[in-house]
Design brief:
The structure holds 2 protein chains of 2 kinds.
Chain A lengths: L8 E10 L2 E11 L4 E5 L6 H8 L7 E6 L4 H4 L3 E4 L13 H6 L3 H4 L7 H13 L15 H14 L4 E5 L7 H16 L3 E5 L6 H4 L2 E6 L1 E7 H4 L2 H8 L9
Parallel strand pairs in A: 3-7, 3-8, 5-6, 6-7
Antiparallel strand pairs in A: 1-2, 1-4, 8-9
Helix pairs in contact in A: 5-6
Chain B lengths: L1 H8 L2 H26 L3 H22 L4 H25 L4 H26 L9 H4 L7 H20 L1 H9 L1 H6 L4 H17 L2 H4 L4 H15 L3 H24 L6 H19 L5 H39 L1
Classes of the chains: A alpha/beta, B mainly alpha.
Chain lengths: 246, 321
């Protein structure tokens, strides 16, 4: 059977609470290597918290997370992270190249400054997201889609095996959305595992091959064609979902 | 005026005092950049007020006015105040700004009580402790300036060593933690640097106004540049400049406290920067806006013209048939 297969991410019995209110309740999630997985659920379902718990940014009340069978603390160099675009102040005095270069800080370690090689890697990632015309642009002067691309370039520079992205499609234009999804699919083709918090139910079947339905509890997770069913969606969103394609 | 400068040029005391004011202005300006970017401007205010009882207690315990001892007392009290704020927010439902207000006024009030008590005791050595409230740069001695230089230099050194770590902490704390930076530790380091920047300025600028020396230069500097390193350097320059100018003005006549004078100088720079800086300044924006509006008006006028022309053609056509 497949039970012995190594999981890229393995979440077991994970519970997270802010004060008394549980935000995530007894979550189990196995992510096999090389899938493009979307986490889907209503507002307040705990999607961002799940990503943050996998990254060790919030302390769980119970449960644990393994990245290729080891704790995140020893595996962080193989994990890349794209936070929500709204989580930072874009008026910070810095430019595109500088932000993307931050993706190298983990590899550099304490105190060491980025050098020529880091710069080249950053430039390469900037080209990948089609932002090479904007390298010296102050980041507040970018559109929402461009800011999102900068964040993704920063994660690409991390040269990770697993990518966790919090709403990379939020508030982006159609061109950016196409660029990003092409990039994500390219990452998967190269054997990377990509986990994406996603809002748009209509594009789940087109964009992703795995899906997790989340509403504080895990409703279901697995390949899209088996998991993304009207019944599961109804359970995730309550009665609030009005139409379902197919 | 010229006479004034000739007169003061070789005045040793004034030279010492100006060097001290320049140093503390540069250091608080540079480090204040981080407070401003982290939206912690008010924390600086709380720390500077909370430091006052530390000075009093340090004096009561040691009976000495050695700058290092007083600064140490101030730093410890400032840190305790910060811890109080953090703890109140964590354990109760009191919001951050309320916690700041509570700690600031309680600590400052306590400090005033202690200073009054010390004065009542009639210890002759206590004279001058009350300058820590409103600041008196003229009281800076060589040893004070030395203390400012060493502590401030140390703080700036740490900032440059941890340059990329602190930058990432301020810009994107979540990402910083995800790549394994100990953000808690960095947070403590940054707060400590802030405490140092504040306590070294207390004697010259005073507890009441010291936080303006952190905030104002950084706010002015942000107007002129979009790069962090330039912002830190510019803020340092603005702080140093207003430190020196404020000191000169206040020592040109007796009875002008230095703190408020320095603050007025730096405030002038802030106003000037907010109005006149290119790209971000108000003047620049309003010119740009007017230009945009004019070009928009031209476009709409042209559209209206062509639309009415079209209408005329259509009407004519209709009349034909």
């Amino acid at each position: 059977m497949h039970t012995q297969e190594t999981k890229a991410i393995q979440v077991t019995d994970l519970t997270v609470a802010y004060r008394e209110t549980p935000v995530l309740w007894d979550i189990d999630l196995d992510v096999p290597p090389g899938v493009l997985l979307s986490i889907v659920g209503p507002n307040g379902a705990g999607k961002t918290t799940l990503i943050k718990a996998i990254l060790g940014l919030v302390r769980p009340a119970a449960g644990n997370v393994l990245i290729y069978n080891k704790p995140y603390a020893v595996q962080r160099k193989i994990v890349g992270y794209v936070p929500q675009r709204g989580s930072v102040d874009w008026d910070f005095p810095t430019n595109v190249l500088d932000v993307v270069m931050m993706g190298r800080y983990g590899a550099l370690g304490w105190v060491r400054r980025p050098g020529k090689q880091d710069r080249e890697l950053a430039m390469h990632a900037i080209e990948k997201v089609g932002m090479e015309k904007y390298t010296t642009r102050q980041i507040s002067q970018l559109s929402g889609g461009q800011q999102q691309r900068v964040f993704i370039a920063r994660a690409l520079v991390q040269d990770a095996t697993i990518y966790l992205m919090d709403e990379p499609f939020q508030g982006v234009d159609a061109t950016t959305e196409r660029t990003i999804i092409a990039l994500l699919q390219e990452l998967r083709e190269n054997g990377k595992t990509v986990v994406v918090v996603h809002h748009d139910l209509q594009t789940v079947t087109d964009y992703f091959d795995w899906v997790m339905l989340l509403n504080i509890r895990r409703i279901a997770s697995g390949p899209v064609e088996e998991t993304f069913t009207p019944d599961n969606l109804r359970e995730t969103y309550g009665g609030r979902i009005a139409f379902i394609k197919n | 005026m010229l006479n004034f400068f000739f007169h003061t040029r070789f005045d040793y005391t004034l030279m010492i005092v100006s060097i001290g004011a320049a140093l503390l202005g540069a250091i608080s300006g540079a480090l204040g950049t981080y407070a401003v970017l982290r939206r912690q401007s008010l924390l600086g205010d709380a720390i500077s007020h909370a430091a006052l009882p530390g000075i009093a207690i340090a004096f009561i315990l040691t009976g000495s006015k050695t700058p290092l001892i007083l600064v140490l007392g101030a730093a410890i009290a400032g840190w305790i105040g910060t811890l109080f704020i953090v703890t109140i927010v964590r354990l109760t439902r009191i919001k951050y700004d309320s916690a700041l207000g509570i700690v600031l006024s309680t600590f400052f009030g306590f400090g005033l009580v202690l200073l009054t008590l010390i004065q009542r005791q009639g210890n002759a050595n206590q004279a001058g402790l009350d300058t820590f409230i409103f600041g008196q740069a003229a009281t800076l001695l060589q040893r004070d300036v030395l203390t400012i230089g060493i502590l401030g230099g140390f703080a700036l050194l740490i900032t440059s060593i941890l340059w990329k770590e602190l930058k990432l902490l301020v810009f994107d704390e979540g990402f910083a933690a995800s790549i394994g930076l100990q953000t808690r530790l960095l947070d403590i380091v940054l707060t400590s640097l802030l405490v140092i920047a504040i306590v070294i300025g207390l004697q010259a600028v005073g507890a009441v106004l010291m936080s303006a020396m952190l905030v104002a230069p950084a706010v002015a500097a942000r107007q002129w540049t979009n790069r962090l390193n330039l912002m830190v350097i510019l803020a340092g320059c603005f702080g140093a400049f207003s430190g020196v100018v404020g000191t000169f003005i206040s020592s040109s006549a007796t009875g002008i406290p230095t703190g408020p004078t320095i603050i007025l100088c730096v405030t002038f720079m802030v106003v000037f920067s907010i109005v006149f800086a290119p790209n971000r300044g108000l003047l620049w924006n309003s010119i740009k806006q007017r230009r945009n509006r004019r070009s928009l008006k031209l476009v709409t006028n042209r559209l209206v013209e062509s639309a009415s022309a079209n209408n005329r053609i259509i009407e004519n056509d209709n009349r034909k048939y």
